[in-house]
Request: fold
Amino acid sequence: MRSIDLVPGCVGLGLALGVVWAALRMPMGTLGHPGAGFLPFLVGAALMLTSISLIARSLLGRRNLPDDTSEVLDRRRMVAVLAGLILYSLLLEPAGFLPGTLLLLTGLARLLAAPGWRAAAVFGVLGTVGSYGLFGLWLRVPLPKGFLLP
Amino acid sequence: MDLFGHLAQGLATAWSPENLFYCFLGVLIGTLVGVLPGVGPIAGMSLLIPATFGMKPTTAMIMLAGIYYGAMYGGSTTSILINVPGEAASVVTAIDGYQMARAGRAGPALTIAAVGSFVAGTFSIVMLMILAPPLAQLALKVGPPEYFALMILGFVLLAYLAQGSMVKALMVAAVGVILGTVGIEPMSGYRRFTFGLPQLWEGLSFVPVVMGLFGLAEVLVSVERSLTQEVIRTRLRDLLPSRQEWRDSVGAILRGSVLGFGVGILPGPATVLASFSAYTVEKRLSRHPERFGRGAIEGVAGPEAANNSATGGALVPLLALGIPFAPAPAVMMGALMIHGVRPGPMLIEQQPDFFWAVIVSMYIGNAMLLILNLPLVGLFASLLRVPAWYLQPLIALFCVVGVYSINYAMADVWIMIAFGLLGYLLRHYGFEAAPLVLALVLGPMLETSLRQSLIMSRGDLTIFITRPVSAALLLLALGLLVRPLANRRGPRRPPPNLPQEPGCAGEAGARSGTSHARGSAQTGLHFSDRPLARGAMARRSAGAARARGEP
Reply:
């Protein structure tokens, strides 16, 4: 029976092959004067061995315990948070810190079960002002101004 | 200069208003990250690294160390009051601490945990102060082959002691070393794994990687779950333990202090192993082991003392050898290197002011923690009622803005997001992220010592086995690598006598177990960084998986 280890085992093996291939294209040097590719080659080979071991164990049927299977996970929330952060990162420089952060915090709070849009918006405003105070004023980080501010 | 001269020098630096303030801030934040389930000391330190950039290195280290040992104090609060450990090192405290709370003895359990933490924390600082300087002197006398062998042993021990699969831990460590090679190779100037991106020429930035793996990944894991817990209320006047409880705790605190420091020095998730070991020792030494799991105060005192003492022990290899053996000191080392401070044997000699100021600040911080934790325990516990939808968006925001503030570069933000996703996937597939961070920090040092060794020996690989110290270290590493295979062929042994999960701890545990297991997973409770699955407790300790012959 295949366990959940098969996927990471295959990914690890693919990564190891890529590293070994890239290392072989680097100057390998000699044992007395190891080159840039020496350590990546060794570690790539070690990764290959451990990945093969994981794949073998997975195919031989040793099932490992998955994360708590009795629990219902809402993976959509994780995907939405990740998508929100990616969108925020894309908008941060063109739109600026203040509007971007307000949208991010309000949206995430609503998504993560804030009781209504009003509570989420209040949290968004307070969080934006607080984080601007912390990063922009206290730590003096030159936060992106965007098109709204001069 | 003698010991007292050094201490006076350290006190002069640590006692400055600025350092006192950041020491207080560090222990306060540490207590908070300890209290809040799902945010451990590694995530706490990672999130705060960007805030240290405007500080002097000594001040930054004082604050980061404060977060590290402060988290050990805070972790016990949630273990005792809601049966959900705030961080992994306090898992064992929940077994008896929560049963005491159910019996109306939450106050004494919290007091003993705080006093035990204080005594053990102070003991570990004294030991750190005594051991680190001579160890640093000794380290100056060993060469690159010994350093190389020590780092290999460190990796193997970390994998050996890791929760779950050793193979997985080794894979993650290998990926960490490979990531450490990204950038321009210092000897030849060759660009490794940069894919034509100038942003990668100087290597992968440490902060985005750590904030992604521990900060953002934590948010991604925790938003999948929701947690509601009833907090047991406690009042200040209920805090005092009885005379019998004091008597029962004294020995456990002293034993936990010594054991925790010893375990802390070794590679691996020091604080967690220390608390588990202390619990096992206390149960074995007790005349009434049947009380354990039903509210034995020794089951709170020993582990809480041990996990605090382990923080001091874990700083010994970092400050004396420049080799962090555990993930949290690795994060500290990464932060210090950003500040231009290179921990290692020369540090104590060349920058005594730094070393002794950090030591003295730890004494001060421990005293602050004792004062903070006893009267304010109710306040900290009330933080658990703060809805998660406040905390998670703010942590996500801090990850993005914190990383952006390093170089004002969006490239760092994208790296952080990528490693956040990687951290999430690692947890999903049952891998620990901690070996990756350790390997990322140690990888370049490993390459340097390997190269120096081979240049010294003109390419003769036997240099590693002809020098007695490196040979012994490598032999030990090899033994640990092959031991699981040998065990698998031999007769199966039962796992060592480990404390049981609260969910399995007898009748009382049966009542509370479901909530604990759910809470653990929901809150991303970690051995070092990975959510603990129900039933994983038995595998959590070092030898258990290995004793069953599982590589």
Summary: Chain B has a mean pLDDT of 79.
